[in-house]
Specification:
Elements: H1 16-32, E1 47-48, E2 59-64, E3 70-74, H2 77-90, H3 97-104, H4 116-120, H5 124-131, H6 146-161, E4 166-171, H7 177-189, E5 195-197, E6 200-201
Helix pairs in contact: 2-3, 2-6
């Protein structure tokens, strides 16, 4: 008599809980992640063997491109909005709520303070074109507006997040030294003695021994 084979039954796995978990994790990472803002300008940084990373939050970044244009940015949206209000108060300027909101979405800026009102009031397409042709923030000995940006940004960030802003300078390797010197001297005059220089990592020559 032949053996009786048990009937084969299909295996069914309920994936509902797994799908729910995947969407919960995806939503969490989307809300918790700080997305990298658009770079102010194309910059090729000099190389060094330092592997110290720049923090992702509470940072003011001053970018200097190869033509010497200076751009300023901070990473927090609310701090950017408050910074514009501080600049407006100090320079007798008035911005609408919409203009403040537009500015808060910009990770960096590179133009004289007097031109901000006209820039922020432009239609979106014209504003996008104007972004590419920003002249840079003045930082020479005659007109050093960069100092204002640094002071107002630190004050605004302290008010919004009750934290101090850390400073970093990202300069192109072909930038002329006097421009970088002006930036460093601005920090010194404001008694900001701790700031990082952004570089690209190169191989440590000691590793070749």
């Amino acid at each position: 008599m032949g053996k009786i084979k048990p009937a084969r039954k299909s295996t069914r796995i309920d994936m509902t809980a797994m799908v729910d978990l995947a969407f919960l994790l995806l939503t969490f990472f989307m809300l918790a992640t700080n997305f990298k803002g658009e770079d102010a300008a194309e910059v090729t940084t000099p190389t060094s063997i330092s592997d110290t990373l720049i923090p992702d939050a509470d940072v003011m970044l001053i970018t200097v491109d190869d033509s010497g244009r200076v751009f300023f940015g901070i990473d927090n949206k609310d701090s950017r909005a408050q910074m514009l209000k501080e600049l407006a108060s100090a320079n007798q300027l008035t911005f609408t709520d919409e203009e403040v909101y537009i500015f808060s979405l910009m990770p960096n800026i590179g133009m004289p303070i007097k031109d901000l009102k006209g820039f922020l009031s432009l239609p979106p397409l014209e504003r996008d074109k104007a972004k590419k042709n920003q002249p840079g923030i003045p930082c020479d000995t005659i007109n050093n507006e960069l100092a204002q940006w640094i002071v107002r940004a630190r004050l605004a960030h302290k008010q919004i997040k009750d934290k101090d802003l850390r400073a970093a300078v990202k300069g192109d390797k072909n930038t002329k030294y006097p421009v970088i010197s002006n930036v460093v001297e601005t920090f010194r005059e404001l008694r900001v003695h701790n700031f990082a220089l952004v570089t690209s990592l190169e191989n440590d020559p000691r590793d070749k021994k």
